[in-house]
Amino acid sequence: MSAPTGGFLGSPEFERIQYAAHDFLIDRITELGSSFADWPRDRLIRVVRQEVGLFVASRQIAINEREVTAIADALIKELVGYGPIEDLLNDAAVEDILINGPHSIVVSRRGVLTNEPVRFRDNEHLVGFLRRLLAPLGRRLDESSPMVDARLPGGGRLNAIIPPLAVDGAAVSIRKFHSGFYTGDRMVEVGALSPELLDFLAYAVRQRCNLLVIGATSSGKTSMLNVLSNYIPSGERVITIEDTAELDLQHPHVVKLESRPGGYEGAGQITIRDLVRNSLRMRPDRIVVGEVRGAEVLEMLQAMSTGHDGSMGTLHASSALDALYRLEMLAGFAGFAGSDLSLRRQVASAVDLIVQVGRLADGSRRMLSVTELTGMNQDMVAMQELFRFSSSPTPRWIRTDARISNSKLAPWERIHA
């Protein structure tokens, strides 16, 4: 059966019929004394389509069979699925779903934002949907807790904020994660990096270099961290620490830790810093921090420089130099008691490489730069760029003239001389 035309789907007429049919179905549920959610999906589909057909016939609504099916499918998603956004969640090409109030849904495909024809009825409908989605996860969304960050059962991260904090209606951001996508070969295939650069980074991981992956929001930091983790030897124990579990490490020995938001007045909160501290007592070979953005920076730097070589993390920064400034700022906020010079020395001894990723104007994601930290130059951290991305005249990665100084990496340069 062919799909209904795009003009009907999402139109005011479609919504009017759907809402009336929804009320009709709710009444039928009450009459039957049952819950559609408890039925097998094939039976649910059959019954809902039958009931919608009866509803349309009894009201003498002038729509065809394809449009009746579209109404029924929308109601099935509304009753037991993800409502108007279920098809978007199931669309492998969709990376992000951005809901800006009930009537505006925007998605990102390959980094490009487009508007979608689907919508929620009103803000009450949207907030009710969010509460139904969050209830099994043990998260609240109400006036006492108007912001929430949660991991979806099928994989993905949801952030929601509701009025009065969100002026134009509830604002929702859903970041989808694609399990099994993150391989080095796949990244080379899509042009995110070159074979030589992949070989260098794989060597750096195997040599237990400490790495920071930096970039802006949605630039591919987590994807790159997943790729790099593939080269951790299988005999090592890896502990990942995140606010919301996003990493999909293809490794046989991974312990995944996730922070916990506090309840009323912060009671029961477990922070990333708490988890990093605890991970040091769990006999880790490597520690992977999904995103460094707070006081945990101190524990992470100490772990990197005191025997947990090969650890990794991501950081929001626009350049390697900006990453150093941000590390200093976060350490200062965390109450670092030493001087600026002692902090810089610790950063220089802890971090071996800074890997920058970015999203270009066409939406494609690329590795932009690889920078080596070479020690201290007077009172500043010394750095040198080893690889950089050039988009002209054709996209390519350039190996700079800088000579690698890190003893762990020097053999790679001799081999590829």
UniProtKB/TrEMBL annotation:
Family matches, as Pfam families:
T2SSE (PF00437)
Q: Where is the Bacterial type II secretion system protein E domain?
A: 81-359
Tell me where on the tree of life, at the top rank, the source sits.
Bacteria
Q: InterPro entries given for it? A: P-loop_NTPase, T2SS/T4SS_dom, T4SS_GSP_E_ATPase
- Family, per entry: Belongs to the GSP E family.
Q: What is this protein called?
A: CpaF family protein
Q: Which organism is it from?
A: Jeongeupia naejangsanensis
